[in-house]
Amino acid sequence: MFAAVLHEEHSIEFEDIHEQPLENNEVRVKVMAAGICGSDTHKMRTKWKYGFPAVMGHEFSGEVIEIGSKVTKFSIGERVVGIPLLPCYECEYCLSGEYSLCENYKMIGSHFYGAFAEKVVVPEKNLLKIDDLSYEEATMIEPLAVALHGVQGIDPKLGDTVLVFGAGNIGLLTIQALKIIGVKNIIAVDVKEGNLEEAKKYGADFTINSLVEDLEKLVKEYSDNSGVDIVLECAGSAIAQEQSLRVVKKHGKIAYIGIAYEDIHLPEDSFEKIFRHELTLKGFWNSYSAPFPGKEWTNSYNLIKQNKVNVKDMITHRFPLNQTKEAFEMILKQKELHKKVLIIPNKEM
Residue 227 is part of a domain; what is its CATH number? Predict the structure, then answer.
C-alpha cells in the first residue's frame, strides 16, 4: 500500500510499503479521510520519539475491508471512525475506567502506523460505526471529543461567563460546545484577528486580541467587573496559561487543555491568586472515559450527526495522500490561512 512515511530529519516521503498483518481481533480499514492534528505539526518541529520509519495520522475514518477471525462487531463495507488510544487495560487507572490516564498506553499514528496511508489496521475495540455521517465530518469526532473532555470535566453552568484562550480548532469546538450548554457569555482570546473572526462566527459573544488590547480591562468589562467563572486554556501558550490566573473570578475554575510546549514561570501575584482566590485548576488530557472510549466520543458523534456542532465549515483544505508533505509545509510555514487540513488517501466513488 502507499503511505506518507516519516523518516529522520522530519522528512515525509510518499512510498509503497508492506501492509501490516491482521491479528484475530483487528480490522483493516480503507482510509477515506485523515486530519492533521496540531500535535502532529508540533512533532514535526521537535524530536520524534517513536522510531523510524513512521506513519502519522490519528484522526481518521474509513471503510472496513477486512476483519480478523475473532471480530464480531463489524462487517465488510461498514463505515467507521478510528479511536487512536490503545490503553493497557491493566494499570490502576484503566481498571478504574480513567483511560486517558493509562500508565502504559500506545497511540495509532505514533507507536503504530497511522492513517496517512491507504489502509490502517485497528483493534476492534478502537472503532465506532458512523452510519451515513460523511467521512470528512467523522474525522472531527476525535478533536471534538478532546474539547468535550475539558468542557464536560470543568462543568460549566447555565448562565456562566466563560473565557476561551486560543481560537484554533480545539478552541472553536470548545466555543460551540459551551454554546450548546447555555453559558451566558463566551469570550474568545487570541493574537490573530482571523481566528477571532472565526470565533465570532462559531458563537463567541466577545473577542479580545491580547496582543494589542488590554486583556484584564476588557475581561472585567465583559464580566460585570468580577472576572469570568471559567477559563478554558486551549492554546498551549505559556503566556495564556499564566493569564488564565489573572482573569478568572474568586472561586473560579480553570481548565488546561492546550499542551504545554515550554516552561512556565509564574509571577508571585499570579501564583498567589491560586490560593488567595481559592481557584480550582484542572488539567484535561486526551478524550477518554468509561465505558471505552467514553461519553466524549458518543456525544461528539451525536452532536455532529444532529448538526448541533458545525465541523463541516472548519475543514478548509484537502490534500491527496501523495501531497502529505506539501500539506505539512503549508501548515508549518503558514503559507495560507487554514483551520482543519485533511489528507484524502482514497477518493470516495
Answer: 3.40.50.720
**Distance, CA of 92 to CA of 112 (rounded, Å):** 24
CA 284 – CA 282 distance, rounded (Å): 7
Which domain range does residue 233 map to?
A: 144-283
* pLDDT per residue as tens digits for the range 119-178: 999 999 999 999 999 999 999 999 999 999 999 999 999 999 999 999 999 999 999 999
Identify the pLDDT of residue 46.
83
Q: Of 270, 249, 277, give the one whose Cα is nearest residue 160.
A: 249
User: What residues in the chain have per-residue pLDDT under 50?
Assistant: none
Q: Are residues 114 and 30 in the same domain?
A: yes
Name residues whose C-beta falls within 8 Å of residue 80's C-beta, 6 or more positions apart in sequence: 27, 29, 61, 62, 63, 64, 74, 127, 128, 129, 130
Can you list the positions of beta strands (E) in 151-241? 161-165, 185-190, 206-209, 228-233
From 228, 248, 25, 57, select the one nearest 123 (Cα to Cα). Answer: 25
Kindly report whether the global pTM for this prediction surpasses the value 0.85: yes
Give the three cell numbers for residue 172. Answer: 472553536
